[in-house]
From TrEMBL:
Key words of the record: Membrane, Transmembrane, Transmembrane helix
Superkingdom, natural source: Archaea
Protein name listed in UniProt: DUF2178 domain-containing protein
Residues that span the membrane, as ranges: 7-27, 33-51, 63-86, 92-111
Length: 114
């Protein structure tokens, strides 16, 4: 099971990074939207992974807060994409998504004690 999870994480991250490179190199707006959707998927997957991992010695409150931050980052990113599609500005929502992702990443570092 751990090998499958690691393979999935690698595949998701490699796919996301490939999309990011295409978006940066081409400047294609559709590629940028794909990157935004990919960010949301990655954040949701990280939230799920952190939530499902129940290692000993980890405070469940930290684990839930970390998972929640990742999930909120993903959801905020999807709201941002929807607002962009509707022709509305979404810079504030993108900032919120990034802030939640950073909080989730900090929580992940606390869990891993890096």
């Amino acid at each position: 099971m751990a090998d499958t999870r690691q393979t999935a994480i690698r595949a998701i991250l490699v796919g996301y990074l490939a999309l990011l490179v295409v978006a940066v190199v081409t400047g294609n707006p559709l590629a940028n939207v794909a990157v935004d959707v990919g960010f949301g998927v990655v954040a949701l997957y990280f939230g799920y992974t952190v939530y499902e991992e129940r290692s000993r010695g980890t405070d469940p409150r930290v684990r839930l807060a970390t998972a929640g931050a990742f999930v909120l980052a993903g959801l905020a990113q999807f709201v941002s994409v929807a607002m962009w599609a509707a022709g509305m500005g979404s810079n504030a929502v993108e900032t919120v998504a990034s802030a939640f992702f950073v909080l989730g990443f900090i929580g992940y570092l606390v869990i891993r004690r890096v």
